[in-house]
Design brief:
By secondary structure, the chain is mostly beta strands. The chain has a domain of 100 residues: OB fold (Dihydrolipoamide Acetyltransferase, E2P) (Beta Barrel), CATH 2.40.50.140. 7% of the residues lie in helices and 42% in strands. The chain has 1 helix and 6 strands; from the N terminus they run ββββαββ. The protein has a 5-stranded mixed barrel with strand order 1-3-4-6-5. Strand 3 and strand 4 form a beta hairpin. The termini are far apart.
């Protein structure tokens, strides 16, 4: 299997788009910067290496949910598969080789942030909420041990 997981920061606010003509598939393209550091025992110091930038694309409901959630600078973990995104420019015989990560799952890091999760429906592309009604935090609940014999 060609599955990979990366963790990094979103480099810009993602923009949600839809397919052309009769194709209404939602897609979201964004970039994740992965910082690379390691500890060098000989120098007794952390060594910073240049960041690696990964192109990520998400489709359908995942794209819509990610677009509603992700913002520039957010720490995310993306799991998916690398796909070939190579092309030949017009008027050239040279192939431009590149890849992108096609996301199967996107998670926001809660290390330096908090989140409120709203469950969405599973209908095609719908963001209809199926969240259970909230209960009042001050509401009294019955204790099952009160009526114990």
């Amino acid at each position: 299997m060609n599955e990979i997981t990366i963790s990094g920061n979103v480099t810009a606010d993602p923009v949600l788009r839809y397919g052309r003509d009769s194709d209404t598939t939602a897609f979201l393209a964004f970039t994740v910067a992965v910082n690379r550091t390691y500890w060098d025992r000989a120098r007794n110091a952390r060594i910073e290496q240049p960041a690696v930038f990964h192109s990520v694309v998400a489709f359908r409901g995942l794209a819509e949910n990610a677009a509603a959630t992700l913002r520039k600078g957010m720490a995310v973990t993306v799991t998916g598969q690398f796909t070939d995104d190579s092309y030949v420019p017009d008027g050239s015989d040279r192939v431009i080789r590149r890849h992108r990560l096609e996301a199967q799952d996107i998670a926001v890091s809660l290390r330096w942030a908090t989140a409120t999760v709203t469950r969405t429906g599973r209908t095609s592309g719908s963001t209809r909420s199926t969240e259970a009604p909230e209960t009042d935090a001050h509401e009294e609940t019955s204790d099952p041990t009160e009526n114990a014999v």
